[in-house]
Amino acid sequence: MLVKRCLLIILLIALWAPGLAAEPTEVVVHVRAKGSKFIGSSMGGAKVTIRDAADGEILAQGLTAGGTGDTERIMLTPLNSTQPLTDEGTAAYRTTLDIERPTRVQVEAVGPMTQLGSANSASATQWLIPGRGVTGGDGLVLEIPGMVVQILAPAAVEGVDAQGGVTVSAQVVMGCGCPLEPGGLWDSRRMEIRGLVKGGGPEKSFELEYAGKLSRFQGTFQPSGPGMYDLYVFVHDPANGNTGLDRVTFSVR
Question: Looking at the domain covering 147-252, what would its CATH class be?
Fold first, then answer.
């Protein structure tokens, strides 16, 4: 009887132990595009998934929403380690987890969601303590590499008349959607923007030049003859290795 009574007391203590009570723990995640600003609503946001790192259970999932952030603060103002890059309007994913004990989580972001062909991912692990949110400063920031390239012409599987060459047009923006232009904040003159064509003979490579409109670039190549061609357009920033690419297949009549 004494043993049963002791076991009952131990069980009651365990059930009422403060450490086992789930406590709301707020987490704020910002997703920054490499070399630029934050991925927000204008680019469909970035998909954020928070998992228990121990067993992979999904604890929360959603999209970042909001603006790309303050350009001057992010790109032009030197900040020390305690000064946040973000403000209340900067795109974020916010969630509150009910956790009972210290939990190591894995946080993954994929984006931008409006351009899945150019989407990349980034992840990090972080300890969460019940009731101690990750909200101060910038919260948790993940940086996704890459730029967004969209081939506008020729269209995929389009039959092209090759007389005078094939004109290639592409739109190229930073991962946050920020525009490229010569001499701009994101200066296209320091970047390599080229087309690569495979099919109908030796590989062809050619430069795409600024077409007079924000983020629009254009070039021309001469195909070897009729047939199917694979076209790749890429952008590469040698200053930080940031790279983006798009691909289409088209035919020459």
Answer: mainly beta
